[in-house]
Amino acid sequence: MPEAPPDTRPPVVTPSRVVAGLCLLVPFVALLWVNSYARLTPAFIGIPFFYWYQMAWVPVTAALTYVAYVLVRREERARKAGETR
Amino acid sequence: MKNGVNGVALGVFIFFFLAVTVLGFLAARWRRAADPLHLDEWGLGGRSFGTWVTWFLLGGDLYTAYTFVAVPAAIYSAGASGFFAVPYTIITYPLVFLFLPRLWSVSHKHGYVTSSDFIRGRFGSKSLSVAVAITGIIATMPYIALQLVGIQAVLDVMGVGGSDSTNWFVKDLPLLIAFGVLAAYTYSSGLRAPALIAFVKDALIYIVIVVAIIYIPYKLGGFDDVFSKAGAAYAVKTHGVPRGSLVSAPQAQWAYATLAMGSAMALFLYPHSVTAVLSSKSRDTIRRNTTILPLYSLMLGLLAMLGFMALAAHVGGKGYNAQLAIPQLFENMFPSWFAGVAFAAIGIGALVPAAIMSIAAANLFTRNIYRDLIRPDATPAQQTAVSKVVSLLVKVGALVFVLTMDKTVAINFQLLGGIWILQTVPAIVGGLFTRWFHRWALLAGWAAGMGYGTWKAYEQSSPAQSHFGGNSDMIPWIGEKGYIGLTAFVLNIGVAFVLTLALRALKAPAGVDETVRSDYTTESDPAPADPTVPGDPGVSPGLPEPAGA
């Protein structure tokens, strides 16, 4: 009789975790690649590109983190439901 | 510039200050729990804060008066390079999302109050946990001192105390009063005081920002004018070197990126951040906060714009103290009463983090030095008593710092503080995900990083000072200038990695791990049996005490 391992861990890498990970990774690539935005134009209401572009990443990052949050939470709940059954 | 006391502004300032003081003392009764003598109560607000309180508390905690004054001041002095604070406070939240829920869970399960508690439990190593605790305390003290410097700058611009007076007592009296009040309500109310005051602070700050960002450019002729004037000011050369630039030049981009990355990694390991995170009531609270905390980063970016406006409005002159630029801009631009509101925002913005920092440093001392090394049998009530006294001592230490030493010293230590805190990342963050690292290897890596970082920072010179003149240096092998803290961190990890391989080969004893895998993902105590109920929205008074911490 094949013995069931006592701790059947769910897989660490799942599709939704990969997507969540990517959502969290994107801001790093965008903001740490300084040369991609080190210029003055196009300006926005007189604010040089360098500044408004970085500030625009604030809402974008918040939205991406929110997506990651929803994905991770959904999966955690699904796992919990599986455990308690 | 200085022409006596600005009566109206001072009156408004005092009004807000008194209101906040009353609030600070009343906070002791807010959400009072069953066992007020436990350190969880005084030092972590009963671990009961929900999403919004946590948001205000963390915002009040991380975006300090020093940030409000120093970031625009850096922009005012040099332009683009000071703006790294914006990417830094953006990318810090994805990091938080990844590792702090795990720290929350394991701390909740085992009753940890500080990150050093976790290290001791995870690696069974007192020397490593004490190293982390001491790093936290010495990095926090000058940070508190800088909050007092921020208050001083505001008082200075209002014409009370400050550098004009010759009598040392009159000169420092306003600061002493502000300090005494802060110490008294922190002592009596613990973490609840700054949590409650943070609401006032943030409301004031947001109002001031919205008004400043619309009204000042309007008076200065629009953003176009502001930036062209600022650009002209940066182009002025002294000794053949321009003052600054509007965009990050190619040779400055490594420094910009490494500073952002290194600071982002350090931010959430400061003791006061950990304290605020552990005071929240669930894992989800933290994750949800990472999606709404960036609102503060937006505010920070807008504040940074004030640096350009101060430049365009011709605030200051030769040899001007850049730290005064923003308060001075407010005084010049706003009607007196609103300048008072702005000053109150900065002043209260300094009190909130100063209170949280002193509580965090006190918790570290009590849990990881007093209890672990001096009195292992201290009861929770005794720990609370010690923490309260230490929180006072920490603040007195910071006050002595401000009053006796040159201010550049405090700023140097602050710079070192970031470098130092980064050296606790391998042990804490590494420990949250893996126990592969050996405790002695982590200790050696920590020592190497601390040593290298301190030495390199000491070597930096600037036109104004011969040591601790900056935070960037050549990165070995890459040959670009970068943040010293991040280089030291890489060295730290490298040493820890190699020594772990060696120690494992030698089968050195690994220490006892009191945590298990599932501790890192556990939810709040009253386990939500029904997955459709999204967390508990109410306040659970007096959470069950974790058994035998």
UniProtKB/TrEMBL annotation, chain A:
Q: Which domain of life is it from?
A: Bacteria
Q: Tell me which InterPro entries the record gives.
A: DUF3311
- The transmembrane segments are 18-38, 50-72
One Pfam family per UniProt: DUF3311
Keyword check for Zinc-finger: no
Alphabetically ordered keywords of this record: Membrane, Transmembrane, Transmembrane helix
The answer to whether the entry has keyword DNA-binding is no
Which interval of the chain is the signal sequence?
none
What is the recorded name of this protein?
A: DUF3311 domain-containing protein
Species of origin = Actinacidiphila paucisporea
Task: State the organism's lineage.
Answer: Bacteria, Bacillati, Actinomycetota, Actinomycetes, Kitasatosporales
UniProtKB/TrEMBL annotation, chain B:
Membrane topology type: Multi-pass membrane protein
Keywords per UniProt: Membrane, Transmembrane, Transmembrane helix, Transport
Please give the start and end residues of each transmembrane region. 6-28, 49-69, 75-100, 128-148, 168-187, 199-218, 254-271, 292-317, 337-365, 411-433, 483-503
| Cellular localization per UniProt | Membrane
Q: Which family does it belong to?
A: Belongs to the sodium:solute symporter (SSF) (TC 2.A.21) family.
Question: NCBIfam families annotated for this entry?
Answer: monocarbox_MctP
GO CC annotations? plasma membrane
The record, for InterPro entries, names:
Na/Glc_symporter_sf, Na/solute_symporter, Sodium:Solute_Symporter
Query: In its UniProt entry, what is this protein called?
Result: Solute:Na+ symporter, SSS family
Q: Does the keyword Transport apply?
A: yes
Q: Where is this region: Disordered?
A: 515-549
Q: Please verify whether the record's keywords include Transmembrane.
A: yes
Q: What PROSITE patterns does the record point to?
A: NA_SOLUT_SYMP_3
Q: Which GO terms describe its molecular function?
A: transmembrane transporter activity
Q: Which PANTHER family match?
A: MONOCARBOXYLIC ACID PERMEASE, SODIUM/PROLINE SYMPORTER-RELATED
